[in-house]
Structure of Radical SAM protein:
Amino acid sequence: MNLVYADADGNVFDHPTWIGLGRSGDMVVELMEEELIPLPEGATLVGLPNTRPIGLDPKKGTMAVLPGDVQAVGALMPQGYTRLNIPSYVKTNKDEKFPLFGYTAVVWKDGQFYVAAEATDDPERWNPLNCDRRAVASGVERLTAKYPENRLYKHLSNCALGYECLTSSNTFLQRWEGGVPVSYSCNAGCFGCISEQPDDSGFVAPQTRMNFRPTVEEVVQVMMEQLVTPDAIISFGQGCEGEPSTQAKIIIEAIKEVRSRTSMGYININTNAGITDFMRGIVDAGLDLMRVSTISALDDHYNAYYKPRAYTLKNVEKSLKYATDKGVYTSINYLIFPGVTDREEEIEAMIGFVKRTGLKLIQMRNLNIDPESYLELIPKPQGEIYGMKQMLEIYREELPDVVIGSYTHLPPSKLGSR
């Protein structure tokens, strides 16, 4: 498995003799054959700015920095794939931070690129190649003309056309899972927030957060246009907004109005679930699915990353337990990072959290972050680091009734009744 690197112009090469490596946390590690899969459709190779690649020089039998004016290369994976290692590199300028993406180790083997990853879900619906951009543009034109005063459609059109966001694109294609953002404010200060960053953070937020409060009617219009088939999903809580439950009143009124008109499809919320009272109201209004974002089931790790305002991880747990008990299909959007998520203490804590809350689904989502900044932020490891592949095996063994996936699933028991 040959080291992959890029020159100063971004041209990608494989080294004829050096062996490619990966990283787990801050440790450079050898990649195992069973950890590698061919570079999947929809993945993108990117150069890592201000870096030099680390490989294994077989002549010396040691790990070394590749000399020359070169940079390390990583892969950005499509949904449905869980990375097992990050690229191996050293920064040439430690003050420079990577853009907020999830970087995966990549090597050249048997005449093609391979990545350290595992398919944890069927990527078909979230493959960017399956999104017809001309059809999206046509949908934008049609729905913005139909609802010329609806600010949500104007906002989402930028997400769909400018960022090529698949969820907002689905909103205009009226298929699968579409989004309806509602909140410009948040009750957390996530370190890796993709829609809002402090001026001194060193990160550039890749998306622009919405800057208005929609009316109930605007929300209802988007929901009704999406919920036209039995398996359609409309989701509150998008990357272009803050915490949706801070606008609980709008959400509750919109859900009640929509459900007075149709029972079609599923209503989902992507949330940090920290405001338990608001979450209970949203559940009681007629929520079908709840996906809670978390990075850990340990308080010190969770608090370091999310910086919660006036809530704790215990509030999150209470919200999930309440929703599960009320028949909502509950899941977590688990932000994962090799060398951290696979720590012994993290695994033990998460297994307990899942069992206490009655979660039905764990969505493994690659954390978009600058590795050094993240590792400096969070607690140091306390126990053994198992490796991401073994971690997945442990979850499948310890939680046999919980689905391990990468994105929203529909409850099997309801599919046949709608």
